[in-house]
Specification:
Helices cover about 40% and strands about 20% of the residues. By secondary structure, it is of the alpha/beta class. It has 2 domains: about 170 residues, NAD(P)-binding Rossmann-like Domain (Rossmann fold), CATH 3.40.50; about 120 residues, N-(1-d-carboxylethyl)-l-norvaline Dehydrogenase, domain 2 (Orthogonal Bundle), CATH 1.10.1040.10. The strands form 2 sheets. The protein has a 7-stranded mixed sheet with strand order 2-1-5-6-7-10-11, with helices on both faces. The longest helix is centred in the middle third of the chain and has 21 residues. The termini are far apart. The model has no long low-confidence stretch (mean pLDDT about 95).
Amino acid sequence: MSSYEWNIVGHGNLASILASRLAKEQQHVRFVLRSVVAKKSVQLSVNGHTDFNGEIETYQHASSPITARQIWVLPLKAWQLSEAIHEHQQSLRDADAIIFSHNGLGAGEEAIATLGDIPLYDWVTTHGAFRQESSVKHSGCGESWIGPRNANQQQPEFVSTLQQALPPFHWDPNIQMRRWQKLAMNCAINPLAAGEKLLNGALLNPKYKPMIEGVCSEIAQVIAVELPQSDLNSEALVASVYKTIEHTQENANSMLQDINNNRATEIDFLNGYVIKKGQEHNIPTPFNQELFNSIKRL
């Protein structure tokens, strides 16, 4: 397996899972922390579907010169992306590749445009995790897809490292369609469950079906304009939503976790993004607007 320098921005739940898995594969991993709070290393403990307990050094206090190929990974909240790019812009410009992973669409677009010709990739994943005191619980073992932010890129060599570290990990040249599919799942599940302080499984109650179908119908209409080559219709999106609910019945989704911990939510990049695109294309989005308003009122 080829060796890279993996620079992972932040040490949230998904970042912790990836760092643990890469470290177990003897890859060189660094956490990139905010410069004002940077430590020499982070004591990382992950349990559940990933078992790891050890130290991960930080990029700001690297113990050895950076000489290998640089892969930067930004597994952040959507609203954190612009600030992170601006803070680490000089280092990012030396990257061989940059991987983004966040819920929603439309995040950090202006900041991303400043990165020049660096190959950019999007990572979509269904892994679930939550923080449990001083450790991260890898509670849901899902799968991942990675593909080019810009079309016509071949699968890069580093993907094989990810496939070894965190299987199943698929190369998907049509990753943007998959991002829209995940957007629909997040738009239907997250604000609906979070707004009523429910675990995902509660949404199997038939009373929530009209809202789920309405949200998916509106998103399907937007997708038809944004991705005319896509075959994602309303029925397919609804089926994906219910499959996700069934597989995550005991989960408190990320938006509910954010609300419970008094953190900002990603609603502007979920239902808010659908509303924005609906306005651009003259597509009414009342179901998405209702969920958007319900979260904004909290």
